[in-house]
Amino acid sequence: MTTRIAITGAAGRMGKALIEAAVAAGGADFTAAIVRPESSLIGADAGELAGLGKLGVALVGNLADVINDFDVLIDFTAPQATLDNIALCAQHGKQVVIGTTGFSEDEKQQLNKLADTAALCVASNFSTGVNLCFKLLDVAARVLSNGYDVEIVEAHHRHKVDSPSGTALRMGEVVANALDRDLGKVAVYGREGVIGVRDPQTIGFATVRGGDVVGDHTVSFMADGERIEITHKASSRLAFANGAVRAASWLQQRDSGLFDMQDVLELR
Ligand code: NAD
């Protein structure tokens, strides 16, 4: 079955990567692109915007104008815009893949409520590789539960303002859950000075910032005599976009509910 895909925030960094991924994917058809209502780009060809040449998909300023032209919406915009878009899609039986981050607790509750009537797939990182790493980390932590010190190092570009990355924190959570530890109690963020010997229960985080690094994460399990490292390196936003397009095709089969990439990749 071919999935007709619409993309909101089409002029954004992720929007352009999503257009590229949707056009390249088998089983997907890129049919609608939405920008802000006040955008000077309205009417322009979405393919040209993404540097792909003419695709015959004109940018529009309102999701409602193209509501009959797609099956699944992929939305990487901003929390309130995403909630409005989901509400409209829910009314019209459309599924939504949500990459937007930064939802407040109240907004997360609104999103959960919308999942009663619409099928939603939400992930703060849509990279297939990162989501596979979450599973690998769960397995590794269970096998290496005794005598292995766990440390997480992440690197990102110089513009990233938060630390550690949400993905590093999620990796820490996966390991802590597998080890039956509370990350809030065992996480150590950076070390300096005379820090004393390492508490074996702790999970350490270290952050590197610089250049144009899209996102590197390494989780090390270190024991006497051996060290296991699980590393993911993203070199392009296409890693996230390809995962989101894969999620769109998977989600088209669902009527309602809240899903994530572990569901899409059947890793539960
Ligand atoms: P961006 O600023 O380049 O693009 C955002 C786009 O959304 C812009 O085109 C903007 O016009 C549009 N937009 C914002 N508010 C809007 C509104 N109220 N109404 C209509 N359009 C609106 O940002 P980006 O780097 O593309 O990231 C977008 C979102 O995706 C962020 O929340 C970011 O954290 C998230 N993100 C998620 C993943 C993931 O894998 N889940 C990966 C990368 C980025």
Helix content: 25-40%
The tally of strands reads 12
Biggest sheet strand line-up? 3-2-1-4-5-6-12
Using only C-alpha atoms, the radius of gyration works out to: 20 Å
Order of secondary-structure elements: EHEHEEHEHEHEHHEEEEHEH
Structural class: alpha/beta
N- to C-terminal distance? 24 Å
CATH top level class name of the largest domain: Alpha Beta
Q: How many domain units?
A: 2
Bulk shape: elongated
* Major β-sheet profile: 7 strands, parallel
**CATH H-level superfamily title of the largest domain:** NAD(P)-binding Rossmann-like Domain
Bound molecules: nicotinamide-adenine-dinucleotide
Give average pLDDT, whole number: 97
Name the CATH architecture of the largest domain: 3-Layer(aba) Sandwich
Tally of separate helices: 9
CATH topology of the largest domain: Rossmann fold
Share in β-strands: 15-25%
Provide the low-confidence segments as ranges: none
Structure description:
By secondary structure, this protein is α/β, with parallel strands linked by helices. The chain has 2 domains: 3-122 and 237-264, Rossmann fold; 128-234, Dihydrodipicolinate Reductase, domain 2. Helix content is 34%, strand content 25%. The protein has helices at residues 13-24, 46-49, 79-91, 105-114, 128-143, 166-178, 183-186, 238-251, 261-264, and strands at residues 3-8, 28-34, 59-60, 72-75, 95-98, 119-122, 149-156, 187-189, 203-209, 215-223, 226-234, 257-259. The chain has a 7-stranded parallel β-sheet with strand order 3-2-1-4-5-6-12, sandwiched between helices. It has a 5-stranded mixed β-sheet with strand order 8-9-7-10-11. Helix 1 (13-24) packs across helix 8 (238-251). The protein binds nicotinamide-adenine-dinucleotide. Residues 9, 11-15, 36, 76-78, 81, 99-102, 123-126, 240 line the site of nicotinamide-adenine-dinucleotide.
